[in-house]
Specification:
- The complex is a heterodimer of chains A (112) and B (115).
- With 112 residues, chain A is an all-beta fold.
- In chain A, 0% of the residues lie in helices and 46% in strands.
- In chain A, the strands form 2 sheets. A 5-stranded mixed beta sheet of chain A has the order 1-9-8-3-4, with no helix packed on it.
- Chain A starts with 8 loop residues before the first strand and ends with a strand.
- Chain B is an all-beta fold and 115 residues long.
- The model of chain B has no long low-confidence stretch (mean pLDDT 90).
- Classes of the chains: A mainly beta (112), B mainly beta (115).
- At the A-B interface, β3, β4 and β8 of A face β5 and β10 of B.
Chain lengths: 112, 115
């Protein structure tokens, strides 16, 4: 079972910021928070990951709560191409038997 | 250059047949995976191999047999195909797990249809 909770779907207007929430109240000290997305008819695509501090990359930003029980993926300026299912996933940073457990994710709709 | 490639992209076959799906990665990763995405869009891990060694086997029927001839390839062979095997199969690769949990790179998927 997935260890994260996300809204089933969200909508946003094109060219506006999007904040995708994720709850992971049972996160352990060695769990990294990963975000992937899956565009229609494509394989999942890595977006960003972090452990404790907020992270930025060319695709998005990841804001992690101080207690690490929740996080938010931020798309600074959504485009139509960002319409996808976004998955928030916990991955153990030290376990060799590591596997990605995908939940249902959040389906993001972008309105032109 | 495609980082993780799969062949074929589409596979239509009849029940009872045996088929294989091939996967190759050119990223120099040590670990490769197979995932299954069913009609309800749930993605589930099936296997992972690290340096040709089976690491994860997630309660997959024996009809499914992964084969890793080298660390750049992980093929999936399916015997006696059943209707329920119809799905999209994704291959993925990453650096060795347990070393900071780096990202996984996914292939484009193989849509298997069993009739």
């Amino acid at each position: 079972d997935a260890k994260t909770t996300q809204p089933n779907s969200m909508e946003s207007n094109e060219e506006e910021p999007v904040h995708l929430p994720c709850n992971h109240s049972t996160i352990s000290g060695t769990d990294y928070i990963h975000w992937y997305r899956q565009l229609p008819s494509q394989g999942p695509e890595y977006v960003i990951h972090g452990l404790t501090s907020n992270v930025n990359n060319r695709m998005a930003s990841l804001a992690i709560a101080e207690d690490r029980k929740s996080s938010t993926l931020i798309l600074h300026r959504a485009t139509l191409r960002d319409a996808a299912v976004y998955y928030c996933i916990l991955r153990d940073g030290v376990d060799r038997d590591d596997k990605i457990i995908f939940g249902k994710g959040t389906r993001l709709h972008i309105l032109p | 250059d495609t980082a993780v490639s799969q062949t074929p992209k589409y596979l239509v076959t009849q029940m009872g047949n045996d088929k294989s799906i091939k996967c190759e990665q050119n990223l120099g990763h040590d670990t490769m995976y197979w995932y299954k995405q069913d009609s309800k869009k749930f993605l589930k891990i099936m296997f992972s191999y690290n340096n040709k060694e089976l690491i994860i086997n997630e309660t997959v029927p024996n009809r499914f047999s992964p084969k890793s001839p080298d660390k750049a390839h992980l093929n999936l062979h399916i015997n006696s195909l059943e209707l329920g095997d119809s799905a999209v199969y994704f291959c993925a690769s990453s650096q060795t797990p347990g070393q900071g949990a780096g990202e996984q790179y996914f292939g484009p998927g193989t849509r298997l249809t069993v009739t």
